[in-house]
Amino acid sequence: MIPKIRTGTDRAFPLIDYLFGPGKHEEHTNQHLVASWNNFAPDPGPNPDRHQVAKLANQLDQPVKALGQQAPATRIWHCSLRTAPGDRRLDDAEWATIARRIVHATGIAPESDTTACRWIAVRHADDHIHIAATLVRQDGRLANLSFDKRKAQAEARLIEKEYGLRQLNPGDGTAAKNPTSQEHFKAERTGRTEPPRETLREAVRQALAGADNEQEFFTRLREAGLRVKLRHAPSGDVLGYNVALPGDRNRAGEPIWFPGSKLAPDLSLPRIRRRLDAAPATATPEPDDRPARADRSAPARRRRDAAGIAERTLAVLDQDDDEAAAQLVGAGELLDALAQTSPAATRTELRAAARAFDRATRSHVRAENADIRALRSAARGIVHAGSALGRGEDGGATAMVLSTLVMVTLAAARWHSARGHAQQAAASRQAADHLCIAYQQAAASPIRTMREAGRILPAAERRRHDTTIRTVLGDDWRPSAPGRDALAAVLAEAERAGHDPKALLEEAASWRELDTAHSRDGVLVWRIRRVADLPASPEPPLQAPTTTRNGAKPGRPAQNPVPPEPAQPAIDPHRPTPRR
User: Which structural domain range is residue 251 located in?
Assistant: First the structure.
């Protein structure tokens, strides 16, 4: 059950007229009262005339009118209560009881308080009611609305449990502010796909991803096409900022500005400054200081770097301490950087993942002295490298980093669940679902190539690699047949590049348990490719070699023969030291 509370400066008539009217799209049906402050308020009923509506509104307004010029500017309180899709249909008596519980919990009309505020509950649809109340009590005092929204939410959680309704996750006050119904209506009326508040929040997050300083942050906002207005102190220092979408104007034709703090708690300028000062982002270095390879684009290199950094973030999340709270902020920036530079094939799912994970980055846990410079620098590198093309090395490197980020979001869900952060845990799992889809889109081509290469390996070589896999991973390892093919192929490719397949597989499997991985064989494949510095997008096999019954190859040799196994595999001096 979702309670939404708003207040207004008008008297009761405009709101009552709307509630008993046909609605904006003729959606109001069978309009009637289900409860009121005294159980005797006049019910205008369906399709009333304005006189009947005015009679009810005047009775509600009497305490306000009695104060005359001393009446408060904010006079009306409006709460809508809606059940979730799939919930059972509540009858009028149940809605009346629920309305009384809400006005009691919020302080509008405490039970047995005969001089409390006047209120009514109107039903004009099966799944929701509206509570309208005046904010002047019948004894002339003002209503005490301290934390009314939080109290309404808490009471709604109890009502859900007692009435057998869908139970929503309790909040902790760290969520971003949702768009109002008026914002939704305006977006629909003007042809926008979402309210400006949502668009601005995403744009500000993306501008912050990997920004090195405050000036760069503001520059990125302007380059994204946003209007930016800075608030200055008399000394000239910047105190805050406001953003607006071009073309989003009020009735007076003025831009509708949103301060950063109204978009999300962590997007206020003081909070942004603390992040920039505590974790300045620098250009991401090449891995192990090796020169950039000519066959790898800048987006591909930066994604490979980010995959290694995300692996280290997994280790922090597994330690289950408060430092993870900061790592989640850095992971959110990395997702935002990928979302704005991703190719069209994965952009939709990556944007959805970044939006969902944004909720997982905020909680009341504060990590002292946590270092997320590596994550922010990885995000900066991805942004500055520009958009990836989604094929070749770009596509393979994207799959490489997404494979790890799926595990990061699942680890975030476990970390939040252990602390009772229900909303953040749900958001992390939602982000993981979107990332899984994006990973499948990015990995489809390179994984298919590896599977084809694995299937045509010579029988003796294939048996040798299968033995290595069983020896390292154990007999209980049950990857799918395509998974075994891809893993055998990458071990064969690493061996041809001069690596020890067994040592590589042991290193890849030792970094972290794989029981929670979305695709264990896929995770190992991408770890090995990155550690062995293999191309993220393997070359397809040129020809499938055939063999006779005694194992001899008929005809001319294959165009891409497999060299004999070296007695002493060469050691790559640049391979990273295993992290265990």
Answer: 191-278
Q: CA nearest 204: which of 145, 148, 158, 260?
A: 260
- Return phi, psi of residue 129, to 5°: -130, 165
Are 523 and 468 in a shared domain?
yes
Is there a contact between 242 and 229 (Cβ–Cβ < 8 Å)? yes
Other C-beta atoms closer than 10 Å to the C-beta of 330 total 29
Whether 153 is covered by a domain: the verdict is yes
One-letter identity of residue 150 = R
Query: Three-class SS of residue 5?
Result: strand
Both tokens of 543, joined, read 């020809």
- Any idea what the Cα angle at residue 536 is, between residues 454 and 542, rounded to 5°? 45
pLDDT digits (tens, 9 = 90+) for 43-75: 999 988 889 999 999 999 999 999 988 889 889
- Residues 128 and 204 reside in one and the same domain: no
Is there a contact between 327 and 375 (Cβ–Cβ < 8 Å)? yes
Amino acid at site 120? I
Degrees to nearest 5, angle at CA 23 with 42 and 180: 105
In a domain, 563, yes or no: no
Q: 306 and 253 in one domain?
A: no
Two tokens at 396?
């393979």
pTM confidence score: 0.78
Estimate to the nearest angstrom the gap between the alpha carbon of 551 and the chain centroid: 54
pLDDT attached to residue 570: 37
Distances from the Cα of 292 to the Cα of 288, 289, 474, angstroms? 11, 9, 37
Domain count across the chain: 3
Q: How far apart are CA 209 and CA 205, in angstroms?
A: 6
For residue range 278-323, list pLDDT tens digits in order. 888 876 544 444 455 656 889 999 999 999 999 999 888 888 788 8
- Choose among 483, 493, 492, 505: nearest CA to 465: 492
Tally Cβ neighbours within 10 Å of residue 183: 18
Kindly state whether residues 236 and 347 are assigned to the same domain.
no
Best CA proximity match to 297, nearest among 498, 537, 573: 537
